[in-house]
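Moderator note: this is an archived Q&A kept for reference. The question asked for a predicted structure of one protein chain; the sequence and the answer are reproduced below.
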Amino acid sequence: MRHLLKFPLLATVLKASAVVSLALAGSATLAQSDWPNKPIRIVVPYGAGSSPDVIARLMGDKLSAKLGQPVIVENRAGAGGNTGTGVVAKAAGDGYSYVISTNGPLVYNTVLYSNLSYDPFKELRPVILAGGQPNVCAVRADSGITSLKELVAAMKKDPGKFNFSSTGVGSLSQLGVELLKVKTDTFAVHIPYASSPLSVLAVLQGEVQFACVPGVAVMPHVKSGKLRALAVSTAKRSSMMPDIPTMKEAGLPEIENLAWMALMAPSSTPDAIVQRMNQEINTILAMPDVKEKLNSYYMEPIGGSTQDLANFMQTELRVMTPVIKRTGVKVD
C-alpha cells in the first residue's frame, strides 16, 4: 500500500497537472455553450463537519467565484457513504451534479457489498483527487493507555472489552482497524457512525474505547486534553502533527493507509466540462490560502489530472481487495 502512504509520493500526482492545459486545448466546444448557467451541486455522502464536507465547502466557495454560479453543498449521509455517492451516480450528466466521496464508496465498497446499487467505475467519472489525510488513532486521555502498543496489549488481555468507532461500514477508519486486528491477532467490535465527529464523540462518551479517524475530528480534543493520540496511519509523521508517532514507529510497519477525497461526476458528463472543473480545482488547490485552510483541518491538497485519479482508484482496488478479503469484512 505504499502508493498511499506518503504525501511526497502522492505529490508526484501533481506533476501530471501540467498536462491539464493541453487537454483543455481540445475543449473549445465548452466556450460555445452557456455552462454553467445555474447552480452547481456537490453532494457530500457524509455528515456536516466531516472531512469531505470541509473540503467540499472550501472548494465550493472558490468555484462559485470562478464560475459565476452558486455552488451548493448537499449532505446526503448514509450506508457508509453509498447513499450520497449513488445519488450522483444516477444523476444526469449535465455538468451540474458532483460528489466528493472517499475510499469506501468509490473503491472498497465494490468488494464489501454484494449488491451495491451503483458502479463507481462505470457510472461515475473521475474529476480530481482533491486531498488526503492520515487517520489518527486515539483513546480517552483517562483510559490509562499511552501508546499503540499498550492498546494492542490491552485488547489481547481483555478481548471482549474493546469496541471501536468508525465513519461507516467499509470506511478506511474501519478497515484500518480491521487490518490492525488481523496483524496483531486482537479483537474489538466495530460500531459505525455517520461521520468522524460522531465517531469521536462515541470515544469521548465512553460508548467505544478507541477510534482511528481523520485528524480534523480528533486533534481539537487532543489539544483540549480529552483524548490521547496514539499514532498516525501514514509511513511518515505528518508535518501538521509532528509529535504523533507513526504506526511503523509503534512496531506495526504493515498498517499504513491514507484517507483520500475525490470529486466525481456522472459518467455521461461531457469531457469539456469535466476538464474545466479539473482545471479550476487544480488552480484552487494551489492557492496558498486554500493550502493553509486545509492544513488547519489536517488535510493536504493533492490535485492532478482526471487520468491520475482514474489510475489511483484502480491501484487502490488492486491493493485493497486482498486486504478486505483477508479481514473477512462483508456487508451483505
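Archived answer notes: The chain has 14 helices and eleven strands.
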